[in-house]
User: Fold these one by one.
Assistant:
Number 1:
Amino acid sequence: MTSVKEFRIEEPASADELGLGAFVFTDDYSVFDWGKMPDQIPSKGASLCSMGAFNFELLEDEGVPTHYRGVVEDGEVVPLREASRPPWEMAIDLTQVPDLPHEGRDYDYDAFHAEAGENYLVPLEIVFRNRVPVGSSLRSRTDPADHGLDFDSWPDEAVDLDEPIVEFSTKYEESDRYLSREEADDIAGIAHIDDLEAVAREVNRIVTEQAAAGGLTHEDGKIECLYFDGEIRVADVVGTFDENRFSYEGTQISKEVIRQYHKRTQPEWVEAVGAAKEQAKAENIADWRELCEVQPDHLDEDVLQVASDMYTAGANAYTGLELFDAPPIDSAIGAVRRL
């Protein structure tokens, strides 16, 4: 189980065959790598499942291989367009996910790949960036000059990039870290880093064009991939408001809204999370959460409703479908601005 969606195995993968399974989306949310937070956001799970399914079908139409099989309605696997209501469950092909042994923060990827063979989930997240919004980790890790930008320091507003940036980070480590290209290539195993980047750039192009058609700006996002039978396929979920950052007329429409709200209203918890991560790094401890002495508080019901409307109205706008009984995107974003 992940922090926001459940994982069901129907037929496990083997060394030579993909398996069958499903994601069951929930209304849970996670920020700052905390895991399940104290509240739920109504209809969030259905909005993520709907957007993910819509994007997988877009990718398949464009010739990008994926692990998607359809959405599940009344026990049947169907395309999103044939579903009679917003889905909560997505049918997928399964690959192997070996254990990643570690001592403290030292991870044994050789052992992972020895068990993975040629059918495995690549233990990387491939990140693409079209702009650098407020809150992007790129601001704390790099300077504008590193990307050919003519700024002495990062400005207070979002910065558009002439060409997308592609980066690689770890997937299964307790605290994710960004990697050099050489490190990422080693961790990827027999899946070549150039091929992973090419798939990420194509996904970015498709999602960016779809967002623009719905009046949204696609700022950044990530994909995960599986390797099977010599082919890279897009896995996990693609192009949702949790995996990607979008904006509408300059206002964020993504999980970043909730992250920034916590920074403003629960700074003690956010600071404690940061301190715990730094302590874990210094002491070579894998799980930083056990070091965090502050717990997150519940959010007010009106804040959860604003978040729900953002997810559902945003899904309607992005897909061009009336999936949810949600306010118009202008109204939903107006409420976000007032948070």
Number 2:
Amino acid sequence: MSNDDFTPTERTRIRRLAKRAVWDREAVYGVLDAGLACHVGYVIEGQPYVTPTAYARIGDRVLWHGSSASRMLRQVAQGVPVCFTVSLLDGLVHARSGFHSSFNYRSVMAFGTAEEVTGAAEKTAALEAIVERITPGRWADLRPLNGQELKATKVLSLRLEEVACKIREGGPNDDEEDYALPIWAGEVPIRLVLGEPVEDARLAPGIARPAYLKDVRLG
């Protein structure tokens, strides 16, 4: 591995199907940049929780947000260790046996302690990154955030240091003797597809669809 690769730790070392492990930093960033939603896991007062939310990556950090009134987010902001995960499903792999049937996927898991983003400018930049991650060009079209909205929103940041990435691609890997069986095998690709935009029922007359809608990110 190069000096810029992620280094496996006891928690991130891939033991099952280690050939699928990816430690190259840019490849890991590529998976994160292709996702739209993450899951953040943590334990509070002995109880495990997993929260799905939107996120963005800025440099070597991932950022996500939620309500300032959230008890769980308040606890996480105080230094609770988290597990941040992103999973992308790319295909159904149909092998000649159930044992070897699988998914094609890209996944990232990151461990660490989240930090709260507190400065107004920094919070605004993080929220802009999340909006722009989904629809580039949208932020400039929106009403600016007001002070109450910033106060009501908590933004958390996690530095990408202890990271594991695993990718599967290609067709089935059957047992050699199974290739002669009269059973169909192969991959069914999975792709996200944009639907036609639906106008808000209270959209003011004369407002045209913005050109940036064609740039909505799907991975």
